[in-house]
Write a structure and sequence with these properties.
The structure is a single chain. The protein has one domain: Winged helix-like DNA-binding domain superfamily/Winged helix DNA-binding domain (Arc Repressor Mutant, subunit A). Strands 1-2 form a two-stranded antiparallel sheet. α3 crosses α5 and α4 packs across α5. A hairpin with a 2-residue loop joins β1 and β2. It is mainly α. The chain has six helices and two strands.
């Protein structure tokens, strides 16, 4: 397993900010495009789903030593997933509460998001074939951009 860490070469980044910005934004756009294409969700729903998903799993990601929670060999126990309130989703996304409420209800109806007494969450969503396909494309886009930034000595 690789343990090398990349660092930002600030001087080169400052010189090539346009180049770096283009490649970083390209990754963002590719991620949004892939999610939309694979799920049929609009931009607001994608932002809301990403916010809910990250809130649901952020505690799990804080434990890199627990290898079983980072693989997809089996579904994680529901206790690993945590809810976020609609209000918190609205605050995190900058979208108005009514829009967030409507979009979350649509995500619940579609079975992508689950509701409990604390709010909403995703559970094992990465096991869905279309989500897995999207994640693979995210990693490919990220790798491409990272390699370009390394080639330009922005990352080293």
């Amino acid at each position: 397993m690789a343990t090398a860490k990349l660092n930002v070469n600030q001087d080169v980044l400052d010189q090539k900010l346009r180049f770096a910005g283009y490649h970083v934004m390209n990754v963002f756009l590719e991620i949004a495009r892939q999610i939309g294409q694979n799920t049929g969700l609009d931009a607001a729903s994608i932002l809301i789903l990403a916010t809910i998903n990250n809130a649901s799993v952020q505690r799990v990601l804080r434990h890199p030593e627990d290898a079983e929670i980072h693989t997809t060999e089996q579904a994680l126990d529901p206790s690993h997933f945590h809810s976020i309130s609609r209000r918190a989703v609205a605050e995190a996304t900058g979208l108005n509460r009514e829009l967030v409420r409507r979009k979350i209800n649509q995500l619940i109806e579609a079975g992508v998001v689950q509701e409990d007494e604390h709010g909403v969450k995703t559970m094992n969503v990465v096991l869905h074939p279309l989500v897995g396909k999207s994640v693979r494309s995210f990693v490919a886009a990220h790798t491409h951009a990272t390699n370009r930034l390394i080639k330009e000595d922005i990352l080293r």
